[in-house]
Design a protein that fits this description.
The chain contains 23 helices and 27 strands. By secondary structure, it is of the alpha/beta class. The strands form six sheets. A seven-stranded mixed beta barrel has the order 21-22-23-24-27-26-25. Bound molecules: alpha-methylisocitric acid and iron/sulfur cluster.
Amino acid sequence: MGLTLTEKIIKSHIVDGEMKKGTEIGLKIDQTLTQDATGTMAYLQFEAMGVDQVKTERSVAYIDHNTLQSGFENADDHRFIGSIAKKHGIWFSRPGNGICHQVHLERYGKPGRTLIGSDSHTPTGGGIGMLAFGSGGLDVAVAMGGGAYYITMPQVVKINLTGKLNDWVSAKDVILRVLQLLSVKGGVGKVMEYTGDGVKTLSVPERATITNMGAELGATTSIFPSDEVTKAFLRSQGREEDWTELTADDDAVYDGEVNIDLSRLVPLAACPHSPDNVRTVEEIGNIKIDQVCIGSCTNSSLQDLLKAAHILKGKTVHPDVSLAIAPGSRQVYNMMAQCGALSDLIDAGARILECACGPCIGMGQAPNSKGISLRTFNRNFEGRSGTKDGQVYLVSPETAAASAVAGVLTDPGGLGKMPPYVMPERFCINDNMVVAPASPEEAEKVEVLRGPNIKPFPINTPLAENIEAAVTLKVGDNITTDHIMPAGAKILPLRSNIPEISKHCFAVCDETFPSRALEAGKSIVVGGANYGQGSSREHAALAPLYLGVKAIICKSFARIHRQNLVNNGILPLEFVNGSDYDRIDCGDELVMENIRDVIEHNKDIVVKDKTKGIEIPVKCELSERGRGMILAGGLLNFTKNG
Ligand code: MIC
Ligand code: SF4
């Protein structure tokens, strides 16, 4: 029986377990990446492990999220990350060099390699044929130390692309169509593997747009084959030697199949407030818009910005619209300048931002009250833009640019013939903003620079014999990590300071939660389906840990967040009968008797609701290793105990 591409890469990297679907496997990790908003914690955790030099083939620390520097905090974090990177063998991509996923694709991604990153959009690397996963910072720290990365052996879904995209329809519309078909829960436990004749019509950055937003499907990751298109991209990046051909076997067996005829796709948009709330631009109609943002790790490649520049050339941004553009990397920015397209954007009235995440994570450019904002980004969760009642639509760069001129949501289809995009023979290569680590001999002398905002992270204690605590919060379905631990210009600077950032935990749902939870000392949170979808931020586990949350009971979890809870020793419990969700209320006193023994011996778990006088069966599906982590009070304790 032939193998899928995913299985081939897993086979060459598996160091623990067997390739049996649904069981836990450990993978050797070749490359890691961090970004600054999750990086400070990841490096503090790496330090706590006491490893001198990273054991990976390449580890890169990017600064791209917190670049506003509205106070000393961000700049201090940058210096901390820069110095600790230098000491431990990590390459340091300085602020201004670009968004981690875009830069990594351009300069470091290699077909057939494994990559984990402390950012949920790390699967962007799947566009170049890597098996790339988003994870918590602690998992990255372990991988840097040479430890395996554990996942559940995924199902592999074939996404068969046929035909060719029509003019003005783009990769963003492909992934929006997949989201429309499968929903934000549709990828859980699965790898999306793209195949078919249509693959060769898509460039590497277009493929990366698609694998990037596989995160929004909840997928373990997404991957494209490595073919002649990949080879040409690597050649233009001066890295042809990094290329290897990779495809699935002809007789590979998949667990599911989705067929997409590229030639039948039309411009799409994800309406507020979920990436799977997808309709055609035509169906939504010419709604009046207030803001357009082009950029983010999804759509900020040279190809994306050149298309936007073509549409904007010789035009003026509509008087009622603010257009902001953030190139994905310095390479993109520079090439836009060299070919004159940057001037077309400036002439049209675009507000050019630095190469960073910027508005995507609420670092500036919040829309006006109730403002309608079209964004080429990947997430439109409520409040994420920085404006609570902002209405964010996710669209392609073509739709974004056409709409910025018209002042209303506009199908770019009416723009005539689209000029073909020809990839440059050679991209503008300049790695001078990536600082090399010190040699192992020099490393000892490197001083790690810590600012006053960098506080130690909380470490859990071993699981108690019994848990007796009240429900301090009950939330609904599809709660995102942006609900649990919001980001944005005011809160992101606190990422290195858990006591401070915890004051904003669940602020979107209930501002009184942090003080109530702290006062209670220990408590339990109840949630619906797909709890913790979205980002990889470990802070969505660390802040509840600091506030005394002992367990989350919900209908189902998103993958990365569940792992972050286990890594930090918080019990992830799921209702055996989803309808029991309705029987528990906020304020109920819950008891889990002998929970330590129950977890240790994998027995059935019963939660007693003392307030209601009822018993509710829940489950906690963990591998032996996972149980060990919960018993020890998290991964660090577990590793220390040997
Ligand atoms: C995001 O897009 O939500 C982020 C900010 O990149 C996060 C990481 C973080 O919270 O720092 C992610 O996607 O993992
Ligand atoms: Fe940055 Fe946005 Fe991408 Fe997250 S999704 S890495 S915030 S650009």
